Amino acid sequence: MKRLIIANWKMNGSIHLIQEFRSLKKIPGTEAIICPPACYLPLFSDTLMKFGAQNCHHANNGAFTGEISALHLKELGCTYVILGHSERRTQFNETDSVVNHKAAKAIEHGLTPIICIGETYAERHENRFEQALLSQIDRSTHGLPRHQYVIAYEPIWSIGTGLVPTSNDIQTVINLIQQRLGTHTPIIYGGSVNDKNAADLSNIPGLNGILVGGASLNVTTFQSIIDAFQA
Ligand code: 13P
């Protein structure tokens, strides 16, 4: 399987940035996927770039002002949708159960959900992170076919902080996820990934890619990160 290099632009980016990203080069063994704010998704339809969304609703349509459904995303040509990002869990009260319903709907419409899990700083330092991660996995992925979603391990304490777990610590979490889900579910890592640490991350066995926040907002930096994952 190609390794997934996913850009999560969060609430950033512009039409100008999308123009710049048209120069992104395809690299063997990798698949770059840009997840811009939803309003920009149609601008990717006439590009060769793969693209995805940062959220979707769990219904097909209806009276849900401000929401976007998996059906809408599919119609625009999205292939992936990030679900359960810690920013949505903490700031928009998304529970594992909500994430699970959204993921089921995304799969029903042929999208691949990227289901985010991650422990807090306290859970890591009080050695409760395994329990926290397993609980998120069990509830968020309940009933979903294991080869039809991706798990993104994003420790909350590493997002936007410059702190990255050691390769051994990431490996331990990959093993934990694989013990729970088997080896058919791709596992990616996110949290302070940049062009300096991408090469080390690319060497972690069993890691199928990365989810990049801040460093995905510059096309040169993002290209260097993709290059580091060349097969
Ligand atoms: P940063 O790469 O900015 O730490 O963000 C990670 C993230 O949240 C990606 O989804």
Automatic annotation (TrEMBL):
Pathway: Carbohydrate metabolism; erythritol degradation; Carbohydrate biosynthesis; gluconeogenesis; Carbohydrate degradation; glycolysis; D-glyceraldehyde 3-phosphate from glycerone phosphate: step 1/1
SUPFAM superfamilies named among the record's database cross-references: Triosephosphate isomerase (TIM)
GO biological process: one example: gluconeogenesis
Enzyme class name: isomerase
Signal peptide: none
Binding, substrate: 8-10, 160, 192, 213-214
Subcellular location: Cytoplasm
Catalytic activities: D-glyceraldehyde 3-phosphate = dihydroxyacetone phosphate; L-erythrulose 1-phosphate = D-erythrulose 4-phosphate
EC number: 5.3.1.1
Superkingdom of origin organism: Bacteria
A molecular function (GO) term: triose-phosphate isomerase activity
Active site: 85 (electrophile), 154 (proton acceptor)
Pfam families according to UniProt: TIM
Listed GO CC annotations: cytosol
Keywords: Cytoplasm, Gluconeogenesis, Glycolysis, Isomerase
HAMAP family registered for this protein in UniProt: TIM_B (MF_00147_B)
Role this protein plays: Involved in the gluconeogenesis. Catalyzes stereospecifically the conversion of dihydroxyacetone phosphate (DHAP) to D-glyceraldehyde-3-phosphate (G3P).
Sequence similarity: Belongs to the triosephosphate isomerase family.
PANTHER family: TRIOSEPHOSPHATE ISOMERASE (PTHR21139)
Subunit structure: Homodimer.
Name of the protein described by the UniProt record: Triosephosphate isomerase
Organism: Candidatus Bodocaedibacter vickermanii
